[in-house]
């Protein structure tokens, strides 16, 4: 029988990682005669407050004995999950391929909020011989586990979610909480040799390493890219401490699957959007280096857009906006503002400057007082018409994005758009 095995919520800020558990579990299942065809790393709504880090769930696509796999997964969760953490509430779901929850459940977990009761209700509607599930503590992990078995990555009826990328995750022993060793130069070389087919291993503009976490989890580094082949190639350049293991995941990372198109008046807190509109206030710099402006949506509703300090050089783009620019903004609506992930400047407004006109006598006039036009101090000539000069803008129409150091897992790097079509699993150059 072909079935999917979903896991979520096994880690804590002190350690572990659900992807590591999936990697160990896949070896264990294989040793029990179960074929593990593929591992999926499924990112869900990045605004969920219970998340430990990046709101990831994992799914193993398997063939074999569903009951055996489910029992093994439960034993492994009990062995590895960080039950001591109050916010760790694991969930495991095993479901036959022909009885999986619909993609609608995945899309809700990706773009909206789900409840534990609603998830259990949905699982209970699946014929009992086709599903096994178990939640620990408050069982919240069942939400992500169910979404991961419902996920359609690169094969989704929703056009915006019909896409996938890959990540190669390289692990150390989970007991090892020391400094990681990854040769910095080798990461830059891997990026140079494989970009744009891999991305976000390093941030060349900010001269920073991006793919090595600083948290006490088992991940040494993760390479993201468009195909398993490109990930292997990038990995061949990387020099690091001896890994304990590695696993390849197909994923919705880097696809923008979390975004939906909306009018500014319809947006809700905790969801992520693409909104078209017009800049109607000059950008302002706030405390901590954040830059914000007000957008007037196509429906006339206002919404504040924010580029936070960690978005670094991206803020220069936002500072260069002026009222009247037509834009499309992408990001999550949180705490009353859109946290910008990328922006398309669709049309730039004219930046003009008004000066008093030059008189027929050759001298520049001066203001004759508020609303009274201009007057020449030399020959007393008058004019109501100012001289208008158009100043060149330091911003061109086009897409702009936050740098790799500030990119969210689900955000699609602009470079991908140049190589990719939305078609099941097909990515071409
Ligand atoms: P881990 O590596 O353990 O998966 P994480 O950062 O991905 O870490 P979790 O510890 O899994 O975060 O916590 C996220 C919790 O939120 C999980 O219990 C998951 O089931 C739940 N969850 C995920 N998406 C949603 C959603 N859209 N609505 C409600 N709960 C959600």
Automatic annotation (TrEMBL):
- UniProt domain TiaS-like TCKD: residue ranges: 6-131
EC number, UniProt record: 6.3.4.22
GO terms (BP aspect): tRNA wobble cytosine modification
NAD keyword on record = no
- InterPro entries named among the record's database cross-references: TiaS-like_TCKD, TiaS_FLD, tRNA_Ile2__agm2C_synt, Zn_ribbon_TiaS
Query: Residue ranges of the TiaS FLD domain?
Result: 140-258
GO MF term set:
ATP binding; ligase activity, forming carbon-nitrogen bonds
Tell me the enzyme class: ligase
Job of this protein: ATP-dependent agmatine transferase that catalyzes the formation of 2-agmatinylcytidine (agm2C) at the wobble position (C34) of tRNA(Ile2), converting the codon specificity from AUG to AUA.
Q: Which HAMAP family match?
A: tRNA_Ile2_agm2C_synt
| Name the UniProt record assigns to this protein | tRNA(Ile2) 2-agmatinylcytidine synthetase TiaS
Q: Which organism is it from?
A: Methanoplanus endosymbiosus
Tell me the organism's taxonomic lineage: Archaea, Methanobacteriati, Methanobacteriota, Stenosarchaea group, Methanomicrobia
What gene is it encoded by?
tiaS
